[in-house]
């Protein structure tokens, strides 16, 4: 048990070991020049920490705003591509339907031509017969 307080005292460090045995730095006097400078140093450290934290938060907000802008732009581009694909598909469907109608019209015209000759022949037979 090398880390136990009893072992460190046996190494001959004296009273300083007792102050450090709880893991805290030695206690200072409440009144004196060192306490004022310590409080000033603590206040300065807190202010520096606050300034650094503020910078970090500002950078985070800027990054989040940039990500949101990029997300909106991506969504806008995606919707545009979707619209273009749908418009192209509708135009292709309309073209195919138009071709089918034209083919049907040609077939009907061919059938009508053959059908009129057959009808004429039948009516001629009926008249002569």
Automatic annotation (TrEMBL):
Residues 10-22, 101-122 have a biased composition (Acidic residues). One of its GO terms (molecular function) is transcription cis-regulatory region binding. InterPro entries: ASIL1/2-like (IPR044823). One of its GO terms (cellular component) is nucleus. Residues 1-39, 95-129 are annotated as: Disordered. This is Uncharacterized protein. The lineage of its organism: Eukaryota, Viridiplantae, Streptophyta, Embryophyta, Tracheophyta.
